[in-house]
Design a protein that fits this description.
three-stranded mixed sheet; flat
């Protein structure tokens, strides 16, 4: 298995971020409103993806924190689609 990839979903509340994640991981029940961040693991084509679901109320704070975090890449990042 290759290196894990992390995905953070950020957006205003009520747009369907959690519903989208639940569909990716195979859950069919409608989720309740997200009150705190959640981490979901998805294996796809022998790769591990960690999907972080951020409550809409915290989207601005998380976006600022992620933007200010230094990132080190040994090569250019590759963007994969699920």
């Amino acid at each position: 298995m290759g290196r894990k990839k992390s995905v953070i979903l950020i957006g205003v509340g009520g747009v369907g971020k959690t519903t989208l994640i639940w569909r990716f991981v195979g859950l069919s029940l409608p989720p309740a409103a997200t009150r705190r961040p959640g981490v979901y693991r998805l294996f796809y084509e022998d790769k591990l993806y960690e999907i972080v679901d951020v409550p809409g109320q915290a989207a601005t704070e998380v976006a600022r924190a992620v933007a200010s975090t230094p990132t080190l890449f040994s090569t250019a990042p590759s963007w994969s689609t699920i």
